[in-house]
Amino acid sequence: MQPSSQELYRVAQIREAERIAIEELQIPGMQLMLSAGLAAFNALQQRWPDVYRLSVFCGGGNNAGDGYVLAKLALQAGFNVVVYSVADTAALKGDALMAYQDYVRTGGRVLPCEPGLKPGGIVADALLGTGLSREVSDEYAMAISLINASGCPVLALDVPSGLHADSGSVLGCAVQAGITVTFIALKCGLFTGEAANYCGDVVCSSLNVPDSVLAKLPVAARLLDKKPLPPRLRASHKGHFGHVLLIGGNHGYSGAIRLAGEAALRAGAGLVSIATRAAHSAVLNCNRPELMCHAVEEPSALRSLLDKATAVVIGPGLGRDEWARALFAEALASGKPCVLDADALNLLAEQPARRDDWILTPHPGEASRLLACSTRDIGGDRFAAVRNLQQRYGGVIVLKGAGSLVADDKDIFVDTTGNPGMASGGMGDVLAGMLGALSAQGLASVDAAKLAVYVHGEAADIIAEEHGERGMLASDLLAKIRELLN
C-alpha cells in the first residue's frame, strides 16, 4: 500500500492516467473501482482489525462508487454495515451505479444522510473525492460535520472530502481522517498547506495501473528525501568547509542571529562570523566561543568580512531601519551567494530583484509581501505561490509552513518532516543558518535547501517523540541537526 515513489501529481494528471488505462490499455473502469474499494477495505482491516461495524458516507460520483464497493466487501466479511447517502441514488451513473446496485443486491442498507444521525464503528468518507473545486455545499458540509463529530475512527477514500486535492487548502470544511487511502498515485494536496490537519496517514494503491502510464505524464512535484553527505577526507581542514557570514541582530533581536550562527556551526561550516550591532558583538558568543562576532555599525565595516565569506546569510533579527537597509544593500552588492530570511525578505519586497545564486526562505506572510497578494492567496495554492516566487525572484525558494516547499527553476519538492512543536520563535533562524552552512560547504543551492529543510523538520520530529511538542525550543534542534547530518 505504501507509495513506491516520491512523485506527486495533480488531479488533471490522475484523470489522464485513468483515461489511458481505460481507453488505451482496455482496463475496465469498473475494475479500477473494484480495486479501489478493495484497497480501502484492506487498509481498514490492517488499521482496525478488531472493529466490525462500518458507516460509509457516499456522495453522487465515482468516489461514492468506491465507497459502495468497500461497503459490499465489508458486508460480505460479516461487518455490520450502513451507507448514508447524501445524493439521490437515482442520479448515480455508470460504474458508481453498478457498485451501488451490487451492494444493494448483497443486502446492503442505504439510508439518507440527515441531521442528527450518529454513525458508529469505523466511518468511511466517500463523499467528494478529487472532484471538488469550489466550496463545499450545504448538504455535504452537514455530512462532513456529522463525520467529524462522531468520535469514530475515519478512513478517507482518495482525498478527505473538502480538501482540495491539488493545493491542500480546505474549501469551507473538510473531513478529519485518521488514514487516507489514495488511488493510482499520490496527489499534491495531500502533503502541504492544511492537509496535515485532515489526511492522517497517507497510503497509496496503484489499482494495478502499470507504471508505464504515469511515466507518460509530467511529475508535478516530489516528496523530499534525505541524501546523505559524503564522509570527509582525513586530511581536511576548516578552509575546506566554507566561511559563513551572518548579518543581523539589530537592537532587541540578538537571539535570532545567535541561533542562526550556532546552527551554521552545527551544520558543519568551517568558520562562522556574525556581523551585528556593537551593543551585541561583545556578548553574542558567550558560551559559544567558536562564533566570531564583529561590531558593524557602518556598511564600510562589512566589506572586509564579505571578502572573506563563502556564503552570506542576511535577515535574522535584521530589522528594517537605516542600519538594516544599508547592510542589506552592501551584502547584495558583494555578489556573494546569499540566503535571505526574515526582514531581508521584507526589504527585498520593497525593491524586488532577481538572482540565480540566492535562497529565499519566506513564510506565508513574507511570501504575500513578495508577491503583493494576501496570505489567503498563498494558502489557496502553495504550489502556484512557490512557482510564482521562483519565476519572479530566481534562485531557490523555500516556502515555509506545514509541508514546506522547495522550488528551483525546474522542480518543486514537498517536505514531510516537522510538527506543530516548531510553531515557536527562532525556528526559521536555525534553518537559515543551516542553509548558509550547507551552501558554504559546496552544495548546490537546491541540494542545500532540500537537505536543510528535511533535517530541520526531522530533528524536531525526534525531539517531539522524546519529549513532546509543547515547549520545544529552536535551540533544542541544534544537537539533533549535528547527529542527523552525520
Structural account:
β12 (271-276), α8 (278-281) and β13 form a beta-alpha-beta unit. It contains 17 helices and 19 strands. The protein has two domains: 7-220, Rossmann fold, CATH 3.40.50.10260; 238-485, Ribokinase (UDP-N-acetylmuramoyl-L-alanine:D-glutamate ligase). The protein starts with 6 loop residues before the first strand and ends with a helix. The strands form two sheets. Strands 8-1-10-19-18-17-16-15-14-11-12-13 form a twelve-stranded mixed β-sheet, sandwiched between helices. A seven-stranded parallel β-sheet has the order 4-3-2-5-6-7-9, with helices on both faces. The protein is α/β, with parallel strands linked by helices and 486 residues long. The protein is elongated and about 85 Å long. α2 (29-47) packs across α4 (94-105). The mean pLDDT is 96. The chain has helices at 11-24, 29-47, 62-76, 94-105, 138-149, 211-215, 254-266, 278-281, 300-308, 322-333, 343-350, 364-371, 375-380, 382-393, 427-440, 445-467, 477-485; strands at residues 7-9, 53-58, 80-85, 110-112, 122-126, 154-157, 179-183, 186-187, 201-205, 221-223, 243-247, 271-276, 292-295, 311-314, 338-340, 358-360, 396-399, 405-407, 412-414. Residues 221-486 form the YjeF C-terminal domain. Residues 14-215 form the YjeF N-terminal domain.
